[in-house]
Amino acid sequence: xxxxxxxxxxxxxxxxxxxxxxxxxxxxxxxxxxxxxxxxxxxxxxxxxxxxxxxxxxxxxxxxxxxxxxxxxxxxxxxxxxxxxxxxxxxxxx
Amino acid sequence: xxxxxxxxxxxxxxxxxxxxxxxxxxxxxxxxxxxxxxxxxxxxxxxxxxxxxxxxxxxxxxxxxxxxxxxxxxxxxxxxxxxxxxxxxxxxxxxxxxxxxxxxxxxxxxxxxxxxxxxxxxxxxxxxxxxxxxxxxxxxxxxxxxxxxxxxxxxxxxxxxxxxxx
Lengths: 94, 166
Prior knowledge:
The complex is a heterodimer.
Chain A: H1 2-10, E1 15-19, H2 22-28, E2 32-37, H3 50-66, E3 71-78, H4 84-89
Parallel strand pairs in A: 1-2, 2-3
Chain B: H1 9-20, E1 47-52, E2 56-58, E3 75-79, E4 87-89, H2 96-101, H3 109-117, E5 123-124, E6 127-131, H4 139-155, E7 160-164
Parallel strand pairs in B: 1-5, 1-6, 1-7
Antiparallel strand pairs in B: 2-4, 3-6
């Protein structure tokens, strides 16, 4: 995602991405990223959790306006449903 | 910010890919952030585009190649008014069964359209651009496919591009 964002940034587009992993984003360094601590494959929240899905999207829109410098911002969204994210980060779950 | 809770996922992912899938894999590092272009209009006036790497495509479009060791840097353009029921997922990096049950978890089209209809967003670009996130050989992404999508987004005259991974 970060490399693709870089290509769009280089073209002069205004971009804002979600990152689900800080280490990778620190390597690729796209212009602006919002950290969301959700599992891979559940980027915006749990299945049928429309409230959280919309909140993440609205937080992106807010960050697109208020992040006036390059870098990574913590959205505050964390995953508390189960240990899926922790297992994914150990490559012990998909 | 908490992330890997002590583990370095970039290192874990690198070792996993190199050992099991694509031996030449290495992250493509940069020492500077890419250029930042400020949003030039209020969000309520902005034309917003969405880019995903969740492996989403129209059921009628070719699936992404989830069997290629070096990954698949191709992309699909999906009309923004597409019903979620007409979308399919092909991605080897995560269990797509969850997102298949509610595609808004990776591509929140219902919410994007609602925000537009409520006036929170000015308008939406005509297409969503979709990639499959496993791209171990990034040369073609950086030199061909990424710039091609950038050109499409410029032609779409978008003010803001939101990108979401998986």
